[in-house]
Amino acid sequence: MGNVMRGGENRNETNTNCNDSALKGEDDTLVVLHDYPFPDISEPIFRIGEKLRVLSQEGNWWRVQSGQSGRENYIPNNYVAKVYHGWLFEGVERQKAEELLRLPGNRLGSFMIRESTQQRGVYSMSVKHRSIKHYKIYRLENNGWYYISPRLTFQCLEEMVNHYCDSADGLCCVLTGPCLSGTANLLDTTTQPPPVVMRRNNFDWKKVDRKDLISAGAPQGQQNRDTMVSYGVRKSIASYLSLAGAQGPRQQQKKHKKKNKSVYITSHSLTHMDLEEDYDT
């Protein structure tokens, strides 16, 4: 919680644990600010708003891995911005912040705290609401505490974020999550199952080989346990094949004339067909 200032009360104590150097740890996350390369040059490798994991830095280039596709490649440093804690964006201008917050995946209350591109240590908060709202973050001269409203001060930006995630307390809405937090994490392609493809069933039951459905030499009760066809389906198939094979030419002709007529088989008939599965017709 923040500290409420009353009647010009001054607090001289400083927090040595909540300074700028502690706020920015080892950065290993970048966000793409522009499609790279530009679409008029070639198909972009990385899209705006895409989260990247840093693999290495080589001069003015980053070797990165996409958090969405898992693709590894190089990108120049002027196409990306560093992100700390998921919500602190370094060197993102106001217009670019609005562009990022309007991307799909952000919701009402998505936010970022951005550091000025011209002056280090100067911050603003951008929040997605009916429109994108921007709040200047100030600091007290005597102890360096942060505040948006002078009645409520915070020792560090993280404390400010935690407070406004619990209560709007003067902002346009409660903070619900960092900007672009809905993007996918790094993919583990080794554990991803193959995609399921649904196809139209053109299966012809008349071409079914009885040997594919039953095990002729298996004892009663143990029969067909190794098959991938369920017991009920096997019984239905066996009944159908027996009925189809027992029909004469006239019955076959009559069947073609009445294609929509349903065939009902009693449980007694199914049991009878089950006992005659191994009978060679």
In short:
With 281 residues, the protein is of the alpha+beta class.
Describe the overall structure.
This protein has 281 residues and is an alpha+beta fold. It folds into two domains: 3-178, SH2 domain (SHC Adaptor Protein), CATH 3.30.505; 205-275, no CATH class. The chain has six helices and 13 strands. It has helices spanning 20-23, 94-101, 157-166, 231-246, 249-257, 267-275, and strands at 3-4, 29-32, 51-58, 61-66, 72-76, 80-84, 88-90, 110-115, 123-128, 132-139, 146-147, 152-154, 177-178. Strands 1, 2, 3, 4, 5, 6, 7, 8, 9, 10, 11, 12 and 13 form a 13-stranded mixed beta sheet that branches. Strand 3 (51-58) and strand 4 (61-66) form a beta hairpin. Mean pLDDT is 75; it is low at 6-17, 184-192, 195-200 and 261-281.
Outline the secondary-structure elements.
Blueprint lengths: L2 E2 L15 H4 L5 E4 L18 E8 L2 E6 L5 E5 L3 E5 L3 E3 L3 H8 L8 E6 L7 E6 L3 E8 L6 E2 L4 E3 L2 H10 L10 E2 L52 H16 L2 H9 L9 H9 L6
Parallel strand pairs: 7-8, 8-13
Antiparallel strand pairs: 1-12, 2-3, 2-6, 3-4, 4-5, 6-7, 8-9, 9-10, 10-11, 11-12
CATH fold call of the largest domain: SHC Adaptor Protein
CATH class category name of the largest domain: Alpha Beta
Strand count: 13
- Number of DSSP helical runs: 6
- Our measurement of the CA-to-CA distance between the termini, rounded to an integer number of angstroms, reads 84 Å
How much of the polypeptide forms β-strand, as a percent range? Answer: 15-25%
Indicate the percent of residues in helices: 10-25%
Q: How many domains comprise the coordinates?
A: 2
Which architecture of the largest domain does the CATH hierarchy give at level 2? 2-Layer Sandwich
